[in-house]
Specification:
five-stranded antiparallel beta sheet; globular; alpha+beta
Length: 166
């Protein structure tokens, strides 16, 4: 893994285009917590160790924030679309979902850090939201909508970035 979400997503997309010979879409996403200097960040999936699960990652994060008043956090996603492994103009979009970390898990939907991630405007944890609510607010939903908007614009403009040539 690289040290940035963008590098990780780009590496995933490049690998897929090399193996498949087809265009590829890849993402890298994670949770960033202000009081922890942005951790777990790019290490979100394995915050508690290489072979751990969501509950263990959540427990470690809650232990790391024990007694901490600053619980500001955000989910971040970067999407990369490559036409080929050596695509000189990858399409890159991102999404950002601000919130904070709860003191204890709430809700049973979703995965990852959803039970401890609070969307402050709604007052709900991501794990308490309906799928439609989460898709509307989430970092991945934002990044996907941004990519779709870019693709629609480029198609309408007949931009060469959408051609099969790199």
């Amino acid at each position: 893994p690289y040290s940035t979400f963008l590098e990780n997503a780009l590496a995933k997309a490049r690998h897929t285009t090399q193996v498949s010979g087809q265009p590829a879409l890849a993402d890298d996403s994670g949770l960033c917590v202000a009081a922890l200097g942005g951790a777990p960040g790019v290490h979100s999936a394995h915050y508690a160790g290489a072979h751990t699960n969501d509950a263990e990652n959540n427990a470690k994060l809650l232990r790391s924030l024990a007694g901490e008043k600053n619980r500001v956090a955000y989910y971040y996603c970067v999407l990369v679309l490559l036409r080929s492994a050596d695509d000189p103009q990858p399409l890159i979009t991102e999404g950002f979902w601000p919130g904070s970390i709860l003191e204890a898990p709430r809700g049973s939907a979703g995965f990852g850090y959803d039970p401890i991630f609070l969307d402050e405007p709604s007052g709900l944890s991501a794990a308490e939201m309906t799928l439609q609510q989460k898709q509307t607010l989430s970092h991945r939903g934002q990044a996907c909508r941004s990519l779709l908007n870019k693709l629609q614009y480029l198609a309408m403009a007949k931009h060469p970035v959408l051609s099969n040539r790199s």
